[in-house]
Amino acid sequence: MRIIIKFLFKIVAMILYRPKIVGKENIPKDTGALLCPNHVHNLDSAIIVAMFKRKVNVLAKEELFKNGFIRWIADLFGVYPIKRGKADLQAIKISLKLLKNDELLLMFPEGTRHGLEKGKKPKNGAVLIAASAEKPIIPIGFQGNFKPFTKVIVNIGKPIDYSKYKEEVKEKEQATKLTQELMQEIVKLRDEDIKSCQKS
Question: Taking the CA of residue 88 as centre, how many other CA atoms within 13 Å lie in the half-sphere pointing to its CB?
């Protein structure tokens, strides 16, 4: 069932948004990694889940799980609830387990759609989890406004190794600094001119 739904959504996504994947060679083939894109639309995580060959687990706000259909889809695709605005120990445990089992996990450092544009402070959770699990973060920049029949580009950056920061991230100041540096990479990918790029 999961494969069928994924295939159908991929067809719909290709018609509506013509997604182009740039830098897909930066996604590890068989090791764990944390995928961290900018958050621009409710469907941005779904685009990644549909277009990537490897299974991508997702952390999503717990409010979405009030809907029975969404809960069913979540169970099918490995979407896990996270409480926003507080330290969610259960979500952290799940994240560490997935990464240590060499799975892919998607998490939005902005915490909400267009967080940077709204002046929201990015969350340190991504760098804390990556450092603790000793797994890399793959920064991703979404380009496009998700209006129907316009192109969406998923610009994937090179992995950033956070295993060396395992002790440093215990200091909030250092965790915040690393998060800001991560967001700079994500914004750079979001704003990069890749019209001449030949990869897809």
Answer: 19
